[in-house]
Amino acid sequence: MNSSLVPVCDRQSYNLSCEEEAVNSTFDQLDCGADPTNFTLAIVQNYRYYFDGVLVSIFGFIGIIGNIFTLIVLARPKFKDCFHKLLFALACYDTIFIICGGINYTCRAFKAGSTIFTILFPFFIHPFSYIGMSGSIFMTFAISIERFLGICYPLKFPPHTRKAWFYILPVSFISIVTNIPRFFDAVLVWKDGEPHYAPTQFRMSESYIKMYQTYFNIPFSAIMPLFSMFFLNVRIIWDLKNVKVQRFGSKKKLKKEVNLFFVLLSIVVTFLILHSPRIIVDIYEFLHVDIVLDCRKAEILFKPIMLIGCLTHVAHFTTIINSGINFIIYSFVGNTFRREFVRLIGCNKVIDSTYSQRTNMSEMSQRSSPGSNQTIADQTGTYASPPSQSCHSSLSKFEEE
Length: 401
Prior knowledge:
Blueprint lengths: L15 H13 L9 H37 L7 H29 L4 H38 L12 H13 L8 E6 L2 E6 L1 H4 L1 H35 L10 H24 L1 H22 L8 H19 L1 H8 L1 H10 L3 H21 L20 H12 L1
Antiparallel strand pairs: 1-2
């Protein structure tokens, strides 16, 4: 022990009382945060009620419905390529997180714990909420890698060599293995015939909090994916500035690859925005982990600033939103997804009508344009030349969109 911590003790006659005085002097120097006022407590509780309770339950339910539609559409034969299979896996992980994380946040906010919730919490709800979030994060990272290879190195990694299980298996393995300790965070205890869950000694140990939750989990699930996805997407954007059609074989294939990238870019931008509150809270915990543990040794509860308390509940809501908003992204940005979804809900007549109108307009434009390859055989309107190239390209364009 540093002797400077015990200035009032005689160093030659240093005894237990001097050590206790040194420890007390150290604890007196701790800054465990100011005691919250009734006003700040009320604000944090309101944030918890409305963000963790009301908003998470509403938007979580909407997100589950959207993910179900996403899974149904992506299961159609049209989506057999690697990219869309990864989107299917992403929707699965997002649904797991919304169900487990949403139930956890909502029940705690409304204080509506039940016997079923209490029994399922240590062994299912708590660990699988982390598995679902980790799977969602790393699957988004995997999709970024797939688009990076597909756009920057299409000749070296052609579509038939990019298999979905190359990405899904590692993501699933990492998401499960890195969250195995979560299964030992809580234990089920029965008191007077009623179930209760409590933190285990393993969960409360200093090494677990410092090494796993802070030094491993925060950089691995927040910092590293953030910068990696940012770098990959910036690299793709820079490469697209100088891309040539010859790299992909045809203009149609190039346009398809670019559209898939716009889907990814929308997912990543949404991810970075909606996960920012969670990352800010994680960084705050990372920077204060030592003082938190010192306060706990002194049996003093560490009290974070009010902003972090409120931001924690906002982060719960935004991560739920992130896991349920992809259906909207696919519908607005993904051309093929939007068309297949419209067909799924029974609007084939609308599509056929739109296609017929576009084809007729293309033919009329081709007839009236000077220098057309079509020639009029006679005044009755019969044509001697084959169907125009413009009409053919219009059909290809519509099929691509």
